[in-house]
Amino acid sequence: MIGRWFATDYDEPVRFIEGLPIEVSSGSDLGIVDQVVRGNAIVGRVTGDFGAVGLKVRGPGVPTRVSVVVHLDELGTRWWSDRVRPPRHAPELPRLVLVRAQGELRGAALLARRQGLRSAGGAKVTVEFDLTAEELDEDGLLMIELAEPPRPEWMSGRVAARSALGLRIDKIYVRPEPTTTAPAPSPYATGCDLALLASDGPEQFRLEVSPVTPAPPLPRSPTHKWSRRKPARAGFKALRIARRAGTRVAAEVVKSRPTDNFGVRATDLLTGVPVELTVVSRGAGSVTLSRGAAQGPILLGLEQPDRGLSCRIVP
Questions:
Q1: Where do the structural domains in the chain lie, given as residue ranges?
Q2: Are 80 and 162 in contact, with CB atoms under 8 Å apart?
Q3: CA distance 113 to 212
Q4: What is the pTM of this model?
């Protein structure tokens, strides 16, 4: 509360979102933002090494399921490139962020954009988790944060630094926890040589590896006066398209293939400690693994990095 002697004409009463289910798709519904700029058609975009948003929900008093839609788009990569300033010939790397709610780790998101002939598509991931009635009590404050993950040595150079920077939070859904178990989502290729497995995921699973077009270097916004002029910008755009096309053609001619008996590493993203993996069987371009216990989401990666390979986890 603000005392009436300290209030200003710009202060607004706290806005509660009434009833369940709730769909938040605009920054105007947020009560708190930390290193996030509010959006009109999206919840917001992260402007720092982490970003947090808070919304007030009128005490539902029941267990709830929360879904957070995280999106990496072209503008997000521009933001990242202009602020991080990677080497000009460094390729675009996947983004890996932790998703926290009410101060606890709830999941993680791995985003790698699909590379086309002229441009790259967006990468979108939905992270779902459940909250008890006590975690979302009558106070009704729901805090969601995108944060940096631990970085084991084997992950060096395989995930973008400051991964949260520029990411969009498209939507936040809050609904009563379903009484029935929903079918597991269809497995999908990550677009990179990494994959994520939930902490409550299967103890035995198959990791499939397939070729994918590697990402070219990211463009930067012009910084010099001459490079901001239209002829120079048109030339830079033509060079970017040519470089992207060359990368794609080279990848189609010489496709990456997983090596025989390829190895896989795993790390618990909550504790940062390795997770034990045991090979159960092998197939063409795949390996069936059994994992040890983990307290948080598990990051899997090929032992030999290869930007031309994509992983998919099949339960």
A1: 15-177
A2: yes
A3: 11
A4: 0.86
